[in-house]
Amino acid sequence: MKKLILALVLVLGLQQIGLAQKTLKVWIVRHAEKDTSDPKDKDPDLSDAGAQRAEDLKKELKSQRLDSIFSTDYKRTKLTGFPLADITGISIQTYDPAKSAQLVKSLKANAAGKKILIVGHSNTVLELIEAFGAKRPVPSIADDEYDYLFSLTVKGDKVEVKMDKYGAKSKQE
């Protein structure tokens, strides 16, 4: 009986070590270009350029076989992730950008081995990267920069960040 219990403890321990060794892959983007035709609209849809960028994001990540998509509770962030969610059958989960650290903590604890997209805002994307334990790859994201695609590889406490661009070039000054 002692040998059976010891074997069970050993198997469970090895499973936990295996989970800890699995890599979490996260892509973080800012929402695509929003419709600015009504300056009073605090929750605008995407502009035509933004809708195209959302399609470009779909093309960029569709082969990755994502497990989850997270978005803030704004139309522009949800619509950025929607084309990808639509072709993969994944429901977009919302998160509170003021509680990004909680989202990251939960993902690091529960999503080992998963592939995840997070859609945020110019003032939250870099904070998300820092919450994962990495350094900002750029000092800031300007109001007219929409084409960054940050890729994070998280394994235990180690985080690797790669910065790419996707879609049409943003209208940076």
Per CATH, the architecture is 3-Layer(aba) Sandwich
Annotation, overall tally of beta strands = 6
Strand proportion: 15-25%
| Number of contiguous helices | 5
The pLDDT mean sits at 90
The CATH topology turns out to be Rossmann fold
Number of domains: 1
Envelope shape: globular
Distance between the termini: 72 Å
What's the short story on this structure?
The chain is an alpha/beta fold and 173 residues long.
Sum up the structure in keywords.
single chain, 173 residues, Rossmann fold, 21% strand, alpha/beta, globular
Note down, in words, how this protein is organized:
There is one protein chain. The chain has five helices and six strands, in the order H-E-H-E-H-E-H-E-H-E-E. By secondary structure, it is an alpha/beta fold. The termini are far apart. It has one domain (23-165): 3-Layer(aba) Sandwich (Rossmann fold). The chain has helices spanning 2-21, 48-61, 75-88, 100-110, 125-131; strands at 24-30, 68-71, 92-94, 115-120, 148-155, 158-165. It is globular and about 70 Å long. The longest helix is centred in the first third of the chain and has 20 residues, at 2-21. The mean pLDDT is 90. 38% of the residues lie in helices and 21% in strands. A hairpin with a 2-residue loop joins strand 5 (148-155) and strand 6.
